[in-house]
Predict the structure.
Amino acid sequence: MRYFTLIPEPLESVADWLERYGNFWRERFDGLHHYLHSEHQTPP
C-alpha cells in the first residue's frame, strides 16, 4: 500500500488560472452560441 501527501498551495495558482480563463472561454462560447442561434433564425 502506498500513501501520498497532497500539498495544496501550488494548486491555488492553478485554480486562479482556471477561473480566469474558464470565464474567458465561457463568455466566448456563449457569444458564439448566440451568434449561431441568431444566424439560424434569420431567413436567407
Summary: The CA atoms of residues 10 and 23 lie 21 Å apart. The mean pLDDT is 89. Residues 9-41 form the longest helix (33 residues). DSSP finds one helix and no strands in the chain.
